[in-house]
Amino acid sequence: MPHPAPHASWLGACLAALLALPAAAQDMPVRDCRADAAPVLPLVPAGHDALVAHATDDLLGPSIFDRVARTEDGAEIALTTRGFDSYAAQLPAYLACDMPFMRVTHAQMTLLADQTGAQDQTRMVPVFFYGWSNGADAVVARGQTGVQALSGAAIATDAVRLDLALQLAQDVAETPEIRLVDDPAASFAEDAALPFTVVPAPVAERLTAGSVGTGAEGSVAEARQVLTTTSANRVIGDLLVVRQDYLDANPEIVRGTVRALLKAEELFREDAKKQVVDFARSAEMVLGDASREDEMMRLWRGVETVGLAGQVDWATPTAPRSYRAVVNAGQTAMVETGLIAAAVPLADPPLDYASLGDDIWDKRRVQTDSFDQDAASAAIRAMSNDEIAENTIAAVTILFEPNQASFPVDDYRDAFEEALNKSRVYAGAVLSIEAHSSYLGYLKGVIQQDWPVARQKRELASLRNTSTARALAVRDALVATADELGLAVDDSQITINGRGIEDPLGGFCDNLPCPPKTEQEWRESRRVLFRVIGMESEAEVFTPLNEW
Please, which residues bridge with residue 196 across strands? Predict the structure, then answer.
């Protein structure tokens, strides 16, 4: 069951432990930023910092930052970097203004607001969005085969990956308990009663021994990966915040820094395609050891940048998966799970990113199909009912009346918008529109009228065809809803699955659908589900678009 909502004093007392801060975190000095404080960018062990490290590479001439870090009137900005072993280790330097910027995730902003917002000068202002985790992080379960088993259960996570735990809490039937801990992998290994954890992908591989954990060589018995951010690739976002006093005193330097980061991202993507990025140097700067080059490359492959268009969308409150949308949804889940007592006010991105990116030549991301739709449909059809349920990450259900053939948008708008939102949160998963038929007429024919086998086969085929037609009608209505909202839809992500009576609501009795026990069950058997189904194990289905 969820924890009761904590008091603010409890949260303050536990914050150091939750964020893995030094023991003296509560005594960290807070100093004003001098007007001439240096613009230092933090580096943390994350894939996005490969592009920042690359932007400082001056081995063959002036670095990217040397060339492009300028204010609007042309003054040079002397950008430097400072490495940290963790996200949490940045806080003392940020509060003391040894470094006016800090790297956080959306959920971390909420957790840190109590400390950084205690004084106006240290209030966090989000100014740049690095992008999303896309394969870098994973959910591991003990003795479970799907994330829906998290309903009413418990999951351990650290603050960096809290956004994923919060999202899953919103997508299961019963609110789970979220345990914020310093070392989720250790908690999972030591507590046999803890069924789920969120960890970096390499740690997940160790816990599961690459498949199912045996209990040997660091693995946990019966542990397996049930989800990664390859599917949930619009959940954990990495952003840069700046102190309010530094932004007030140096608005042009902050704008110039963001402009330099936008250009550095574009140039990094081009150099990565040409394979001229020195990942050994990046590993030395980000991980502290040039010999960890392969690890740095893997970190980079586990994230996704967003480009100028994505930066604009992130700063637009009404856009899907915007900063404001992610923060609000996360705080709602934090209240529901007892991590905070009430929503916390946070500043919005204040910059005009379109104008800052006026010299970016690649102003929008090329939209390509992420899925082989035929392969995805075939893979789902090959699944048993249990396998479909196990691979379901989230679901939205609508009901229909007998003989209903159309689905007016106005009648189903809330459900359609929820389904569209799920498809964007889990943009690396398939959205299966799964239609079911009422089975009462079939039961009467078989049991009361003694239909011959040939008639039964014809009726089953007819029910499948009818449900397929309904699924197609629902897809058309869903796309119409997206058009009304001005949302682009990846058609390849949507599959049609007319089930007929293959998965009756009440299960099977003697190889026939169990008769509905109540009128409500009969009504609910006429249903269409929007299932978000993970397809990461089906290599021919999904092509993750991690690079530009």
Answer: 141, 155
